[in-house]
Q: What sequence folds into this?
């Protein structure tokens, strides 16, 4: 596979390209989807792809070559197309290698794991022990191997493998909870705990009452706080700022969040998205994005960094920079303190469908799902349903009152697109609306 | 495509020798071109070719699926072995079965007046750039804008162990654009999405230039003349884009049988409609909502689904009542009915599940003027920006992008950020009249794990709702 990456790059340069990148990826992932407490389908993939990036006289072309037995022919065709494209005056090259990378090896026990049924059963067991009647979700063994070569001296290899389980437990249509388990080591993988959490929330959410609109102090469970930080990290990509898809434009050095919040992106940190390098081969590293509420940087590749007169943060995708994995620095409150300090408020456990009226202002709404609870002095008074969180991303970040001291790694279909290691959070003055009568 | 056909047939033969009760193989070859023109600059051109085989087997009442883009017989044999092995490991207590379908042999393709393959990438870029130039010639303050163009030529070969053999060709074209316009510190943003099944002639059919220019002018007018939207109960006249999103979100999704049965519970959610909900009233008697894969040139056009079942129009809500669920063969068997051809996959490497195609309010006979003339006080919301709906598809929100106050039948000044926040029955029960100006936009519909963002179109005519709460 290394040979294929290098051959693609050499061929492209030989055909006149100034820059070339080839990332040959072998995907060997395996998944079990389950619903109604049983597997509904098991999936396995055997795929190899070369993701390539060629630049001919500032004409930028990206592609995926799927037929690795005919790469010469594919490169010739792609370079010909690149020559007929248009120049991108914003293009500023790719990173100069070679680089030194951290030694990271996947857990051999994860690599050799061939059957995930017992983990699904453990999760379902954990949920039904708490009273859940119906469980659905996915178990994943992610495994992919990258062989990266660039025309600027990079030849790098990364074998990534991890385990993931997402479970939703239901007592009824309107009484449900969600749990997540993520691990890079088999010994740390605890799907039963995820099931217990989902089941416990579902049981607490029994017979929910219609919620009431207003402004509340809200305890965000890590899964829904992860949704908020995922939005934050995603909208800190320089491309998003330039495209008008971010409320963080022109806010470097300014206060964008409460001083409680320190948030960083770290592809080299412990998460199921851990990787040794970005798409240009730059070693991944910790980048503090928000320090005590002050915006420090956007996420960059080489081209966007030049545009913003800074250096790459090691977040290159093939075209635009993206976060790898988001981390929130833990706060100083225990979970109990986070809750007990709420005189009269809400506890939200999950959300979905976050959408913006204006990305520039950050005006948004999102729909809490699974357990929604009215709490007083930390205790659940009753379960609610049918509410919407209608607010503004910057307003929410600025109103973070307290953070818990135990972060958990969250990632979930749709809303938490990459791992977000986040604790419980308490946010004041959160807008809640509901459907009109 | 002879060798690829051989691979699919080889997969089936091998699977049947292994003793599976059902097997299917889907070969797909997709050729894509897309580019983003951001703030007038071509960001990057993407050109991709993807082809491979996905095999799904039913063994001991359990499903296994495996896929590869390594198109050798040994790799195909390996994925069949994979699919059988993981299906056997499922240990299901209740057995999955498929509803009966007759085997069919068919070739179908979507005609192209001018083939997408014959249009150079330079011409495609030039077309979008000329629209962008005309937009900028308006002289508005547009700090951020981007256009995303994509086309996809999809060749499929479907074969199953029951004897179905189907070849198809679907060329598709799409343009998405996103604009930010500012004026005196105020910001207005929009996005629109157009799709077409067919050739390059789709560009002319959309009249993209006029649509983009009209949209930008309406944004500017909203910024300059727009006032706060009134709050309280009033009439609402909702344009095709609003009718389309409501059709998709609160009619199409809740009638997906896999959602009704709980198969999507952990991801896209469930449905407020129970499995025995056929006949349930959700709207007024003038409300007919259909999902129809056979609408010519709509982006989700197809004649057979990805389980080899013939496509047909489905009435989801008829005269305000739930009429039919969207079914694939698995859900149909569980509900003791037949598939209505709703199984689709985004590519060869993922399973086909229940999906919407082109979902819309069935038009009736009112003109827009007739819908408006009867409104004493209300809002005419032509389009939306923010929207969402809960995972049981009951509580929806649509926030206005282009909207106007209506008084005594006359359209007055623009109103900004009108909010519709209603339950599904409250929305559809308030509809008292349906227009004839059917129009579609394209969307990406998200579902399943791994996520499958699939081509869909959303549409409708202008509709009128009486006495609903707006703010």
A:
């Amino acid at each position: 596979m290394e040979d294929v990456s290098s051959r693609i790059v050499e061929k492209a340069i030989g055909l006149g390209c100034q820059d070339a990148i080839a990332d040959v990826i072998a995907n060997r992932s395996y998944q079990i989807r389950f619903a109604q407490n049983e597997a509904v389908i098991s999936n396995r993939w055997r795929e190899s792809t070369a993701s390539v990036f060629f630049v001919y006289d500032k004409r930028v072309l990206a592609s995926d070559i799927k037929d690795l037995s005919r790469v010469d022919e594919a490169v010739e065709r792609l370079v010909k197309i690149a020559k007929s494209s248009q120049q991108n005056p914003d293009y500023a090259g790719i990173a100069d290698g070679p680089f030194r990378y951290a030694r990271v090896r996947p857990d051999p026990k994860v690599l050799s794991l061939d059957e995930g049924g017992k983990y699904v059963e453990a999760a379902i067991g954990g949920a039904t022990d708490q009273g859940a009647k119906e469980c659905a979700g996915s178990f994943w063994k992610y495994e992919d191997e990258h062989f990266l070569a660039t025309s600027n001296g990079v030849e790098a290899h990364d074998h990534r493998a991890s385990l993931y389980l997402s479970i939703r437990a239901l007592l009824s249509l309107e009484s449900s909870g969600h749990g997540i388990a993520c691990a890079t080591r088999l010994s740390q993988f605890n799907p039963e705990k995820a099931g217990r959490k989902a089941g416990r929330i579902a049981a607490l959410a029994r017979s929910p009452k219609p919620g009431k609109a207003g402004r509340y102090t809200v305890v965000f469970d890590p899964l829904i706080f992860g949704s908020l930080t995922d939005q934050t990290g995603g909208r800190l990509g320089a491309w998003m700022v330039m495209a008008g898809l971010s409320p963080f434009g022109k806010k470097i050095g300014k206060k964008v969040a409460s001083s409680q919040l320190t948030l960083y992106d770290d592809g080299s940190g412990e998460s199921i998205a851990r990787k040794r390098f970005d798409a240009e081969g730059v070693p991944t590293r910790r980048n503090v994005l928000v320090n005590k509420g002050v915006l420090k940087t956007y996420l960059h590749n080489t081209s966007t960094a030049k545009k913003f007169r800074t250096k790459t943060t090691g977040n290159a995708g093939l075209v635009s920079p993206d976060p790898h994995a988001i981390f929130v620095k833990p706060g100083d409150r225990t979970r109990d303190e986070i809750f007990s300090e709420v005189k009269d408020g809400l506890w939200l456990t999950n959300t979905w469908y976050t959408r913006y009226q204006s990305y520039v202002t950050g005006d948004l709404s999102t729909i809490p799902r699974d357990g929604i609870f009215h709490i007083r002095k930390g205790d659940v008074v009753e379960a609610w349903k049918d509410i919407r969180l209608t607010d503004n991303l910057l307003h929410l970040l600025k109103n973070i009152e307290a953070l818990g001291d135990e972060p958990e790694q969250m990632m979930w279909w749709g809303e938490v697109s990459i791992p977000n290691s986040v604790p419980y959070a308490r946010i004041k003055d959160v807008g809640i609306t509901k459907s009109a009568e | 495509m002879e060798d690829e056909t051989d691979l699919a047939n080889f997969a089936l033969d091998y699977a049947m020798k292994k003793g599976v009760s059902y097997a299917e193989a889907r070969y797909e070859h997709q050729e894509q071109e897309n580019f983003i023109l951001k703030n007038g600059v071509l960001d990057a051109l993407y050109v991709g070719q993807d082809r491979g085989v996905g095999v799904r087997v039913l063994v001991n009442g359990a499903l296994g699926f495996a896929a590869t883009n390594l198109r050798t017989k040994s790799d195909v044999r390996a994925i069949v072995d994979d699919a059988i092995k993981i299906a056997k490991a499922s240990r299901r207590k209740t057995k999955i079965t498929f509803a009966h379908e007759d085997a069919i042999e068919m070739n179908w393709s979507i005609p192209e007046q001018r083939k997408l393959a014959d249009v150079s990438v330079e011409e495609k870029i030039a077309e979008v750039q000329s629209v962008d130039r005309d937009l900028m010639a308006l002289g508005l303050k547009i700090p951020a804008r981007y256009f995303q163009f994509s086309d996809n030529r999809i060749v499929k070969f479907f074969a199953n162990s029951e004897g179905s053999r189907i070849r198809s060709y679907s060329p598709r074209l799409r343009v998405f654009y996103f604009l930010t316009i500012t004026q005196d510190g105020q910001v207005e943003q929009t996005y629109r999405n157009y799709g077409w099944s067919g050739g390059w002639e789709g560009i002319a059919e959309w009249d993209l230039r006029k649509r983009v220019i009209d949209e930008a002018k309406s944004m500017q007018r909203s910024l300059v003349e727009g006032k706060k939207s009134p709050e309280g109960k009033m009439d609402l006249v909702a344009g095709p884009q609003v009718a389309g999103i409501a059709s998709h979100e609160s009619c199409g999704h809740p009638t997906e049988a896999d959602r009704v049965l709980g198969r999507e519970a952990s991801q896209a959610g469930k449905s407020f409609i129970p499995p025995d909900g056929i006949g349930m009233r959700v709207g007024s008697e003038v409300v007919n909502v259909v999902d129809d894969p056979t609408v010519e040139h709509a982006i989700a056009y197809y004649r057979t689904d990805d389980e080899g079942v013939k496509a047909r129009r489905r009435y989801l809500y008829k005269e305000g009542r739930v009429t039919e669920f969207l079914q694939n063969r698995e859900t149909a068997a569980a509900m003791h009915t037949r598939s209505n051809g709703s199984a689709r996959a985004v590519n060869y490497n993922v399973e086909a599940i229940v999906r919407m195609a082109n979902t819309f309010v069935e038009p009736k006979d009112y003109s827009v003027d007739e819908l408006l003339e009867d409104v004493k006080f209300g809002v005419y919301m032509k389009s939306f920006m923010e929207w969402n709906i809960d995972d049981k598809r009951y509580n929806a929100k649509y926030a206005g992008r282009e909207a106007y106050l209506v008084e005594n039948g006359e359209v007055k000044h623009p109103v900004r950020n009108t909010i519709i926040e209603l339950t599904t029955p409250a929305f559809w029960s308030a509809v008292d009249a349906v227009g004839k100006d059917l129009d579609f936009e394209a969307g990406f519909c998200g579902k399943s794990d791994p996520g499958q963002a699939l081509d869909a179109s959303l549409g409708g005519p202008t509709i009128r709702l009486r006495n609903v709460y707006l703010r």
Q: What stands out?
A: The mean pLDDT of chain A is 97. The CA atoms of residues 74 and 166 of chain A lie 39 Å apart.
